[in-house]
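Query structure, 462 tokens:
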């Protein structure tokens, strides 16, 4: 049934576009095909990760780690293919498969886990006198710095990021574009061979319950007319359906509007900056005990970077602060009252820079966060980059029984490297990364111990 609904929603539009342009397609001079496969290998070690701080009681608020230690490796395989007609029309498909093997954790998958459709879309370029391009179907999307729209499937972590969407890009002029997007995300994906019950939203699912469905309309304007002052403006409307948690609790629906702006000025030859602000207004549906409530939330980011690209190691230093508004009641509490002031992360739920901190939020739903930090990096050899980021973390609003907002001091180190720079038999370089995190936990987590995270990854495309 769900597959039928999906086809009814998206593919008639693609079929109509093909029919409208059939004469031009028939006269096309060139049809090309391409295909390939990529692999990504992860090896992860984690010790004492923090968990979400429930605010119901002091006992639950201090049960933060449970002496958790785990190690696992994972391998993702993605074969893909593309048909291109007249260099203007594409049909693209990519399958995905990933399995994990845990060394000392019960969260192991059976092998193979599942084969899923990671991407499947039709793309039409050069429409309306080369003013419009259209992409219809399952696709990856990311806008700006990824603080609003980055990951449509946070429930499977980094296995996939796809959105089921229709995206049109209008070329306003030579230096500006306007993207108009419609998104419809389901909590499970029936387009799989394997376990269809994997929760793609990371919200708890319950048999027979009201699973969370996410719908959104996006307008994203990018202007690059002034090289030293590029900026983005955006509007996002999102509808999150009511859903039923694993405990049986019925969670009301949310409908909210997000309006924001992002500017990236180049101040001098060596100094640049970035600023982003966004506000949210909306409503939360009523429950058996509470009437409909309002949403009023906001996000702000500001940072400055000093960079010397002419120097041998190309050093840079960035100082920045990111703030997301918070609320003293749980987002999934149907009995919460008053205006909800906690930031709604739209389609950017997990913390993109830290795996440790992401686990500290219910459903990876990042909100209520203050993060002043600094980052420094160097590139001693082309293809090899080191950077280090560090800073204290706070809750914007005290929201648990510990009565403290200091989450802890976070340190993140990365080493990005290339194994083969210009291989003749590979598509692009074979590259990898080491990542290490340490969170010296604060009183927000009670008597928690220092948390550690290590990851090695390598990626190649044939």
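Result returned for the query:
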């Amino acid at each position: 049934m769900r597959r039928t609904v999906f086809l009814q929603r998206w593919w008639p539009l693609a079929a109509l576009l093909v029919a409208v342009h059939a004469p031009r397609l028939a006269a096309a001079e060139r049809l090309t095909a391409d295909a390939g496969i990529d692999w990504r290998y992860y090896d992860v070690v984690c010790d004492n990760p923090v968990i979400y701080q429930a605010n119901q009681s002091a006992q639950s608020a201090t049960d933060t780690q449970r002496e958790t230690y785990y190690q696992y490796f994972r391998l993702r395989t993605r074969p893909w293919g593309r048909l291109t007609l007249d260099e203007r029309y594409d049909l693209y498909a990519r399958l995905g498969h990933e399995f994990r093997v845990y060394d000392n954790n019960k969260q192991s998958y059976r092998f193979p886990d599942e084969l899923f459709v990671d991407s499947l879309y039709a793309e039409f370029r050069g429409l309306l006198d080369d003013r419009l391009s259209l992409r219809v179907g399952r696709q990856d999307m990311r806008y700006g710095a990824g603080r609003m729209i980055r990951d449509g499937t946070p429930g499977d972590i980094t296995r996939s990021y796809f959105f089921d969407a229709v995206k049109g890009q209008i070329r306003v002029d030579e230096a500006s574009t306007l993207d108009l997007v419609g998104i419809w995300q389901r909590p499970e994906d029936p387009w799989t061979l394997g376990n269809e019950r994997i929760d793609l939203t990371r919200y708890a699912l319950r048999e027979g319950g009201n699973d969370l469905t996410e719908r959104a309309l996006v307008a994203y304007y990018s202007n690059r007319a002034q090289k030293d002052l590029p900026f983005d403006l955006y509007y996002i409307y999102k509808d999150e359906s009511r859903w039923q948690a694993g405990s049986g609790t019925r969670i009301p629906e949310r409908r909210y509007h997000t309006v924001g702006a992002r500017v990236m000025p180049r101040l001098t030859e060596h100094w640049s900056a970035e600023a982003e602000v966004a506000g949210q207004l909306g409503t939360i549906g009523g429950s058996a005990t509470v009437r409909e409530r309002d949403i009023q939330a906001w996000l702000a980011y500001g940072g400055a970077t000093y960079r010397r690209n002419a120097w041998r190691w190309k050093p840079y230093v960035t100082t920045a602060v990111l703030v997301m508004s918070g609320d003293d009641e749980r987002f999934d509490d149907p009995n919460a009252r008053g205006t909800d002031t906690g930031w709604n992360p739209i389609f950017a739920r997990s913390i993109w820079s830290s795996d440790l901190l992401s686990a500290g939020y219910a459903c990876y739903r990042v909100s209520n966060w203050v993060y002043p930090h600094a980052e420094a990096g160097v590139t001693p050899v082309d293809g090899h980059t080191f950077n280090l980021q560090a800073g204290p973390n706070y809750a914007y609003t005290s929201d648990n029984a510990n009565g403290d907002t200091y989450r802890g001091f976070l340190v993140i180190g990365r080493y990005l490297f290339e194994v083969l720079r210009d291989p003749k038999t590979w598509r692009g370089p074979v590259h990898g990364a080491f990542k290490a995190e340490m969170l010296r936990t604060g009183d927000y987590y009670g008597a928690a111990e220092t948390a550690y995270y290590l990851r090695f990854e390598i990626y190649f495309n044939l």
